[in-house]
Amino acid sequence: MKNRIEKYFIKQLTAFEKNFKKSKKEFDIEAIHEMRLSIKRTKALFLFFEYIDPDNFNARNEFKSIKHLFKMAGNIRDIQVQIRLVKNIRKGGKNKYKPYIKHLRAKETEAIVIFNKEVKESLHQEVITNQDKILNVLREVTNEERIREKTITLLNDKISHIDKLRKDLGKEENIHEIRTTIKQIQYLFAFTKKYVSKKLFLQLSKKKLKKIENIFGDWHDRVNGLNLLTNYLESNQETDPGEYEFLKNKLELGKKMLFMQIKHILNKKLLFFFVLEL
Question: Looking at the structure, do residues 109 and 96 belong to the same domain, yes or no?
Fold first, then answer.
């Protein structure tokens, strides 16, 4: 089973290296997404390693080298997603919101310049070099039962965290945190499910989980969209806000409808469909 986790870790590092190089070369929206996805999965692994051996592994320290990269790549992707979202909302009106899209393109270029300036070309090699040090933590834990117990405890902690946060959905930061934690649970299950009884597996299909994840993601995109649009209108006083009323209303309505879906999902406890037991 430890071999399975090791293979998963190496797979994520390989995906990170491939998409890091592609992102640096082309800044393709999907390459950036896949690079950040491999980083998220690696972070979940780091949390897992720290949980099974906290004396010899510190997830925060190990993640430090790629945390800044992750954030800067996120800035680029957020803007790229907004450009796509605005284009979808305007539909056939090609010239509609043209100044705003131009503004977003400029912000994208600025974010790419910062990324290229601050992220070393050799960063991916540094991450790969550390893999043996990281995997030694796993290799030195010989008690499979201990790994199983730690796995269940960690998953329970994550589920309890969501359960606590969902009681106050009035705070947007709670929804963001729930979204992050749902992803971590999914990533953790990807390489630890063999440690947990089949009866304790997630009862939702991968398809339904993906749908839930997309709802949270779409809500997040509209929150970002409203913030970016508001900042643009406030910093460009000559722009007539009325020209962007439709766009703003569409973003606000989308955010509201997605929030209602999120609230429905969490109130029905669709994410709390199992209780892990030792």
Answer: yes
